[in-house]
Amino acid sequence: MKRTLLTHARVVFPNEVRDNVSILVEGDTITAIDPASYAGATEVNLAGRTLMPGMIDLHCDAMEKEVEPRPGVHFPLEFACAQADKRNAAAGITTVFHALSFANHELGVRNNTFAADIARAIGDWQTHALIDNRVHVRYEVTDETAPAVLSVLLKDGHAHLMSFMDHSPGQGQFRDVEAYRAYLANTYKTDAAQIDDILVRKAEAAQGAMHRMEQLAQLARDCGVSIASHDDDSPQKVATVKALGAVVSEFPVNLETAQAARAQGLATLFGAPNILRGKSQSGNMRALDAVLAGVADCLCGDYSPAALLPSVLKLPDLAGIALHEAIALVTCNPARAAGLHDRGSIAVGRRADLVAVQTLGGLPQAERVWSGGVLSLAAHFDHA
What we know:
Elements: E1 3-12, E2 17-26, E3 29-33, E4 42-45, E5 50-53, E6 55-60, H1 62-67, H2 77-90, E7 93-102, H3 112-125, E8 132-140, H4 146-155, E9 161-165, H5 177-188, H6 192-205, H7 209-222, E10 226-230, H8 235-243, E11 248-250, H9 255-263, E12 267-271, H10 272-277, H11 287-292, E13 298-300, H12 308-319, H13 323-328, H14 332-337, E14 354-360, E15 363-371, E16 374-378
Parallel strand pairs: 1-4, 1-5, 6-7, 7-8, 8-9, 9-10, 10-11, 11-12, 12-13
Antiparallel strand pairs: 1-2, 2-3, 5-14, 14-15, 15-16
Helix pairs in contact: 2-3, 3-4, 4-7, 8-9
């Protein structure tokens, strides 16, 4: 069994940060902290680096852009999976839930057949992957055709997290109907007649949404798949999804809803790009305000996985929280929310998902990444 000793690191533990620590990794597991004996281990000197757990991204939309970089322009799925895998490793993410939308009333890759093909391709690529790639299926509840497709994916083990979303204008992310129209027009170059047709179909399909959600939620629970809710906009909405078994509230749109989610025991999730940019793309609650108010449990890459590491490492200065508290938002907290009890912290017996971070020009970079004890990334930034 391969043994690796990581030495002289500044290590982020669940409850503290300690300097000049050694970590022994044997196979895929962390087996000792500052071991007295490490015969036969290969030493990696991490002086000047911060060693943190590999990040866990519960919601990353970037795969859709890897497959369809421009409207109607599609890359081969194995190529897209390989590129997404490498981008996530370079970002310091060791477990990613690729968020795929099942929304036949929308356009591009957000249709059921194509999304299911991508989900299966992600699973197929995993044998070659650098990190742990998983699938987050996002069910648009006004789509009456998706449950049959999602049921197969859940039963076959191709779905690892499921969220309910409702992009009907007038609530949630698109409380302003004109904002929804602008989204479709800008993203998919949709003309006014097409938008009108989409709105009519969404309104018609909404009638049976709750029954479909109840059936899918039961199946997800039977398959051991965690459930999330997307763009919750009221305490009433939180209560509804809690009754369905949801454990994560993604992007609650205001403070009242985020507080209600936490009161109900749901983990709240916000976008890291929101931290980096300083605002929400849709005018909803800022992620930083959620952190300042103490109602943020997790951060995700959303549409930019590369934003995760610099965003979370800005939080000690921006929000006045400890480094280990900031790191928890992308490690142990999302691990707990997704039921991944084998990872998310640097502790004996945990999976050796680790990231050595070097700061260059004020920007933190993942210099080395280990996934399950295997060195997946080794970048050399020193040019002396």
